[in-house]
Amino acid sequence: MGKQKKSEHLWLKKYPQDIPWDVQFIGKPAYELLEESANRFPSRPCIDFLGKKFSYQEVLILVNKVAKGLQNLGVKKGTKVGIFMPNAAYFPIFYFGILKAGGVVVNYSPLYVVNEIADQIRDSDTEMMVTLDLDVLYSKILAAQKETDLKKIIVCSVKDILPFPKNLLFPLLKRKDLASILWDQRHICFKELIDNDGQPKAVKIDPEEDIAVFQYTGGTTGIPKGAMLTHANIYINAQQARMWFSKVDEGNERILAALPLFHVFAMTAIMTLAIRSGAEMFMMFPRFNVDEAMKMIQKHKITFFPAVPTIYTMINNHPDVKKFNLTSLKACLSGGAPLPVEVKKQFEELTGCKLVEAYGLSETSPGATSNPLYALNKAGSIGIPLPGTEVHIMSVEKKNQEVSQGERGEICIKGPQVMKGYWKRPEDTQSVFQDDYFRTGDIGYMDEDGYIFLVDRIKDLIICSGYNVYPRVVEEAIYQHQAVEEVTVIGVPDKKQGESVKAFIKLKTGKKVTAQEIRSFLTDRLSAVEMPRYLEFRDALPKTMIGKLSKKELRAEEVNKPNKKTI
After folding, report:
1. Residues 241, 212 contacting (CB under 8 angstroms)
2. In this structure, what CATH number is given to the domain that contains residue 66?
3. Which residues contact 486 (CB under 8 A, 6 or more apart)?
4. Closest to 116 in 3D by CA, of 216, 246, 46
């Protein structure tokens, strides 16, 4: 993959004038993002958790105390410490505290079952786990501890971070939800952990080499792999995001943390970007609720709202959406999954806010490309490379050959945010890197202006009678029907064609439509080979932990029910 001259980078033709693409980033320890903002905005609110505010200075003090407490427990450079909790004030405090202590953050989804937790503990070599005193969380960690070498459970009290009078009412109203904890030597409470002078030992960090985060890939196929993200990866991706939002009013923005911070998209697009910008994070706890989200946007005059497409769809189709004032929103960023053009259009019409699609992966920290907020924006595109990032479209069959402009191929990324590799998986690491470029496994093409269009995952490609059918193309066409709220398309086994196209559709509330009406609607929008052979209407479609539509469960159903009749 030969090095291209700057003049050959198509995206430079329409690159935002106020953003330099060829900037040379300098990596720093990731915890300096917080230290820098705490120095600039010490009294500015950093976190709002259910009404309790923590200033940047207060968060930094707690981070230093956590770091010292962890070091007192034996955390040193490279020690793996897991975080197992939904969005709470403790999350960023421990995230940066672990890094300051020299440890590695291992993100765990609070939706994991015990065997998934235990598997990740063993794979990552997690030695300590941070969780809340809620039984639904703690009981899982306790069970996983019995199956693994987990040395210590750090338990944080929800009550202690609630504002008055919620802190008094919580233990009374939620008594049945609180865990019964045996405080032996394998446990330590948050208050005890931070009972120190807040002066952790300085740990020498090499930003380019030292790992900050293990971010496990979603596991939609195969066994999840731990992407090793360095301090430089995390620090620089936050800087790239900040440069992209060039009109950010530092120290004055308000961001809604509606996505779970354990997920890589939220980690950067919400937490580290907010902290880099001196923004105030309003946390939703314990999970996303569309009514609560719109109330919070209106009440707190939220200015920045990163989310996944399904969330924007929920807002678009909410029966009372016009009763809420959402005009405070300056910018909305969609990631984690393809953004249907119709969803983008409807949301922008409802709110007057620009909604742009971005793209990235766990392996890219995750931000790699985005549509500009204040320059040319192309619906259906994942935008152009972020500053310091190169993207090339390479042949799937001929790995060393770059395809022509407009031709489909595999999206390959090079930049300072690209991971070091997969933990304990040198063969997998070697297989996804080629000449310093990360091969994403995604199919796309680049237009004459350097804008990239994501077609589909290589693994999602449907081979129908020898023809390539891309599920996203079919999904985009179905989304145009006014009765459709959500759709997922997969390939199902077919003795004659190899695979056939099947669409699972969720209709909007109160809407009715037949399979034949859908097919008639698609006649002028899809080719004969792309036309779904099977249509199945459902009340709900499976989603991942972050709220993305998921194909994995549907594929499994089809495999397990080979004789199932569909429309």
Report:
1. no
2. 3.40.50.980
3. 310, 313, 505, 506, 541, 549
4. 216
238 and 281 in one domain? Answer: yes
* 3-class SS of residue 55: strand
Task: Judge whether 411 and 393 are in contact, CB under 8 Å.
Answer: yes
Query: Residue holding tokens 């806010």?
Result: 353
Residue pair 302/254 in contact (Cβ under 8 Å)? The answer is yes
Contacts of 83 (CB under 8 A, 6+ apart): 91, 94, 95, 98, 105, 106, 107, 108, 129, 130, 262
Q: How many domains does one find in the chain?
A: 3
Residue recorded with tokens 């923590």:
54
- Read off the pLDDT of residues 437-478 as tens digits, 9 standing for 90 and up: 999 999 999 999 999 999 988 888 898 877 888 899 999 999
Element (H, E) at 422: strand 421-422
Q: Are residues 64 and 161 in the same domain?
A: yes
Q: How many CB atoms lie within 10 A of CB 280?
A: 24
21 and 163, same domain (yes or no): no
Residue ranges of the chain with pLDDT lower than 50? 2-7, 219-221, 565
Largest CA distance in the chain: 72
Tell how strand 384-385 and strand 152-156 pair up: unpaired
Q: Which residues contact 265 (CB under 8 A, 6 or more apart)?
A: 259, 306, 308, 335, 336, 360, 366, 546
Question: For residues 41-64, b (16+ Cβ closer than 10 Å) or e, as one string?
Answer: beebbbbbbbeeebbbebbbbbbb
pLDDT tens for 302-359 read: 999 999 999 999 999 999 999 999 999 999 999 988 899 999 999 999 999 999 999 9
As a three-state string, the secondary structure of 80-123 is EEEEECCCCCHHHHHHHHHHHHCCEEEEECCCCCHHHHHHHHHH
Sign of the alpha-carbon dihedral angle for 265, 267, 272, 278: positive
The CB-side HSE value for 35 (13 A sphere, CA atoms) comes to 11
Task: Tell me whether the omega of the peptide bond preceding residue 165 falls within 30 degrees of 0, making it cis.
Answer: yes
CB neighbours of residue 169 within 10 Å? 12
Asked if residues 344 and 351 have their Cβ atoms less than 8 Å apart, the reply is: no
Work out the percent of the chain whose per-residue pLDDT is above 90.
85
Question: Which of 53, 123, 49, 39 lies closest to 91, judged by CA?
Answer: 49
Q: Which of 554, 432, 426, 535 is nearest to 477 (CA)?
A: 535
The secondary structure of residue 436, as a DSSP letter, is T
Domain containing 53 equals 31-206
Measured CA to CA in angstroms, residue 233 lies from 28, 134, 427 at distances of 9, 33, 22
Is the domain of 196 the same as that of 255?
no
